[in-house]
Protein: NACHT domain-containing protein
Organism: Pseudanabaena catenata USMAC16
Amino acid sequence: MAIETKQEYGIRELVKRVEAILSGFAERISDRGCSYDRAYLDHAISKAILRYIKSYAESHTSIQLIGTHQPTSLASIYISQKFCAYTSIRSFESVDDMEESFTRALQRSAYCKGNNLLGLNLANEEEYLMVLGLPAAGKTTFLKYIGSEALRYPKSRYKYDLLPVFLPMRRFCCNTDTLLLAIAEEFERCGFPEPQELAVWMLERGELLILIDGLNESVLSHKQLSHLVTEFVSTYPRNRYIVSSRLNCYENSLGQFLEVELLPWGDLHVQEYIHKWCTVNQIGINGLTQDARQDAADDPASEAAQRCWKLLQINDIARELAKSPLSLSLLCLLLCDRRYSIPSNVSGLYKKSINLILEEQVIKQHLNCTEVVNNLSTDILELILIDIAYRGFEKHQLEFTLEVITNYLQDLLGNYLQKFQELSIPMILEVFQQLGICKIINSTDGMVFTFSHIAFQEYFVALYVYRHHKTKSLVTHHLSDRHWQNVFLFLAGMSNGNVEELLLDMEAQITTYINQPKLNKLLVWLERSAAYATGDFKDVSKRIIALFVARPRFLTKLAPALSLMRVLTIARKLYEMFDASLDFDRVFEAELSLSLSHALDFDSVTEINLASQLCNQLEQALVSVEFDSGQINFQNLRSKLDTLYAQAPNYEQSIEVREQFRSQISHTWAQTLYLPLDSNHLSLLEIENLENYLYANLLMVQCKNAAIAISPVTWNKIESRIFRVAHKS
């Protein structure tokens, strides 16, 4: 009772704070001469504020951990997350956007350039924060935590008195919706008068903390979303913004946003989380309050946490899985149950934990439900979930109205034997509500069904593909689509005994991305160069390394130049899947400088200097590769570049003269290294295909690593063909 009274007091204080802010809005409406009575208006706003705060707190400040039966406060389970600066190359809408991004980066203090940044400090320091991370790394949890801290102002560590607005992109921006409409809908749902005008009024005054979660979950392209967000921030710059996205889907920069990446959890984070999870889970099972648990002679939660931690210490696979908060929750669920062993990979982890959750709910229904549910089983629940997941994912749909779900269930159950048709749809929906892996929530469209995390939907989609033998279709239609990356990885992990089929299908599709004359010539050059290199590297590594020499450069337009920088980023990740002994950092710096010099029309002397600098950095980074000096000779290249200095036109000369000099640099580079002379004249489509080619190769290797077992003979053959032209038999 004391806790509830304290919470109610906190809510009343918050309502008073927001009322004080909105008093100006009430005056604005009254002065406008509208039909609202002032007393009625004040009462309606106060009532709407209370409804908004309670709704926000219920939806975004509590969490139901997988395996627990009751929601718990986010603060009780939250682990302080750490970040590092994100430095990969993105696309920009314009040169102005890029210049603004670089200017802001230079203006930021040294704290944001480190690799051990505290999330709360970042949120306090940065007006515009872009949070990036791997799947299930804790991005949404971080946004919700900052929002919950904002609600507790001034008694929290968040420094700003702002009203948080949480906007999940799976729900908003589904077509041409704007962020303004999304905010207005949140206000309208809670009964605020004139919700859109209120949204504009608060935005203009800078009264909001806007949390935009999951750019990768929107049906809009990242380019569209980038434009939408940057335009909105430019229109309403006085508010604070935190945006999240998966790393692999983040392509177009948000310009003025500081971009940071969530770091994997270390041992201390894992230990702390395990203890908190076991404490919450123990309370849920035993029905004890926190005080009662503390007064108990024994601490079963601590004992369970210690047991989980010991098991993690003796298993390398489990320790790797534990670096993700969601995976660690599932591990805790399994290890505390004592009936389950540690799984072999992520797919196995999801399989075992989901089976445990479904089994518990089926048993509960059989014991407690008065309705006849003898036909309900874990198999039929799983069958329903994988069907819903796949139907939605194909349409990029992550939320479903109850009407749509009911139609799905009627259609699905009607296609099976009579005993399945007897199952009650309301009863199935009730079971779904209790699973924890999916939920039914209230939205602006009414009640909707959604998976509690997109990773669960991706797992069920992969299971559908696996069981319905749709691997070829998946590869053909979605291999280059980053939205499906996690589905491929789940599928590889569950394809026991036939993962080779998946990899061979991927390899066949990969060749279609490179089946163009200029790109084929590039592969031929890579293969020939690697064949004569004598360094102690794998053959496939040599071919990937050679791309750093041969990659198209000297482009005059910014967008394709930055796209080709992203190609190098993927190539670096792919190389590190095979070898990790080369340092490409300075090569990347020199590549970026040279790309910008051409795209931004630097003077000719600077451009020739940067070309020479890149030559030097490549020579230093690749000295251990030992390429054939008759083909790749950096000393010879540097000498020929030096001869161009005297010919460099000054900036006063015509653009045509300077363009001709750029062509000389490009021609000298290609001719000296025996590169195809047309390699620097790729179209946007060819650049896109080259990027897809590298991404798909990287994904194929990641799938191989995600598999439990694979034939060495089959994989060695696939590996030998990576970055080589496919020869017809």
Q: What stands out?
A: The domain at 344-473 is CATH 1.10.10 (Arc Repressor Mutant, subunit A). The chain is about 60% helix and 10% strand. Residues 120 and 414 are 51 Å apart (CA to CA).
